[in-house]
Specification:
Strand 5 and strand 6 form a beta hairpin. This protein has a single domain, classed as Trefoil (Trefoil (Acidic Fibroblast Growth Factor, subunit A)). It has a 7-stranded antiparallel barrel with strand order 2-3-4-8-7-6-5. It contains no helices and 8 strands. It is mainly beta and 133 residues long.
Length: 133
C-alpha cells in the first residue's frame, strides 16, 4: 500500500539527489481518493508540541511553507539521520518534525513539530533517508 513510503521532491524543481539544506516536499506514496498527499503542518499544540502534522492534498497548503521541509544534516552528511525543519514559522521560529507521545490514531507514535530538532535528546526528531527500492 505504501503508507510508510515517502517520496522526496525538490521544492525548487532541482534535479538529482537531495543534499543537506535542500527544501523539499514529502509526498506519501499511498494515494488517498486517487491523489497523492504531502506532509504538512496545521493548527497548534498537538501532543504538547508546537504544530500538528498531517497530510494535505497540496504540497504547500497555506503557501507559507507549511508543506516545505529543510533537510538539516548532522555533520553535513545526508546519509546520517537528518532533522526536518518546517518552513512555516510559528511564533516567529522554525519547528522540526518530531515524535511525541504514543498511540495516536492507533499507531505507535504521535507526530507533530517541536521548537527543538531533538526535543527529548533521544532521536525523537531524527529521520533517516533510505534509497528507493
Amino acid at each position: 500500500m505504501g503508507t510508510a513510503k515517502w517520496k522526496i521532491l525538490s521544492a525548487s524543481g532541482k534535479k538529482g539527489a537531495v543534499q543537506c539544506n535542500d527544501i523539499v516536499y514529502l509526498q506519501n506514496q499511498a494515494k488517498y481518493q486517487s491523489k497523492f498527499t504531502y506532509l504538512d503542518t496545521r493548527s497548534r499544540g498537538c501532543e504538547g508540541d508546537a504544530l500538528c502534522v498531517s497530510a494535505s492534498f497540496s504540497p504547500d497548503r497555506a503557501k507559507v511553507g507549511t508543506g516545505k521541509w529543510k533537510l538539516i544534516c548532522t555533520g553535513g552528511d545526508i546519509k546520517k539521520p537528518v532533522s526536518l525543519q518546517n518552513q512555516a514559522k510559528f511564533q516567529g521560529k522554525f519547528t522540526y518534525l518530531d515524535t511525541n507521545g504514543a498511540g495516536c490514531e492507533g499507531n505507535a507514535f504521535c507526530v507533530s513539530t517541536s521548537f527543538s530538532p531533538d526535543r527529548a535528546k533521544v532521536g525523537t526528531g531524527k529521520w533517516s533517508i533510505l534509497p528507493a527500492k
